[in-house]
Amino acid sequence: MKKLLSLIAAAAVAVGAVSCSSKKAGSSSQSSKAETTEAVTTMQPVPADHSQQTTTTASVSTTAAAETTVVTTAAAEETTHQPDPLGGDAFEYNDDGAVVFDKPVEDSDDKTLIAAAQALFESAGHVQMLFTVGCPFKVDYDNYIENSFGWQFYRITESGISRLSDIEDAYYKVFSRRYPSSELSELYIEKNGAVYALCGNRGSNIYYSSSRVTGIKSRTDDEIVFTVENYYDGSDFGDESYTETADFSVVIENGNVWKAGQFTLPY
């Protein structure tokens, strides 16, 4: 598989992987108080269909970014280059959808770190949907096996995907292996020299509205824990709106590559 994901838009909907040029960020700050930093908001992504290439358009709403139109495909043959949402080019998406800083993370202020966390949160949500709701790879729906419950798993025909470890390698381009996924082994089966995918589907939470990284909760040399507020609006259904707070962490690898650690899909 040439490039697994095409994710784009800093502080945008979780839609695709991007790569861009990088410049200097702001000054360094070690403050961990959420009230001293500015939050960034993302809207709910549209999951890609497991059998078709999907075009998604999203609006970016941040203090420094204008509306951005993006194109994403499940196979991700192309990568679109875009700057980070702060306009300072402090970080970028790599071709896989992880966030990469162009200088040591400690040289960036909290506002920049929160914006980068927002970008990675969106990327993680998109990747999680691709791998656990449907399948991001080409499959043959006429070739399947069944598990002990009679569920049908369809053979993946994507070039380079013949073992479960190939699935894991692709998934952990955005997620950190420090927090292993328990779902991959349930949704994918390796058998007869091939990998079969459940290709399950589900609807999203109809109340989900948006998510916002609001502050830094704690940090170590190689992991930063952020606070995320997930907003749910039930007004269209006669119910009240509500907010849920969750932790989201980034694991810093190789000095400047951010991958998702603690993560819960909010929709």
Describe this structure in words.
This protein has 267 residues and is α+β, with helices and mostly antiparallel strands. It is built from three helices and eleven strands. The longest helix is centred in the middle third of the chain and has 23 residues, at 110-132. It has helices at residues 110-132, 164-171, 184-187; strands at 40-43, 91-93, 99-101, 139-146, 152-156, 188-191, 194-197, 208-219, 223-232, 242-253, 257-260. Mean pLDDT is 75; it is low at 1-38 and 42-81. The two termini are 28 Å apart. It is globular and about 50 Å long. The strands form two sheets. Strands 1-8-9-10-11-3-2 form a seven-stranded antiparallel sheet, with helices on one face. A four-stranded antiparallel sheet has the order 4-5-7-6. 13% of the residues lie in helices and 26% in strands.
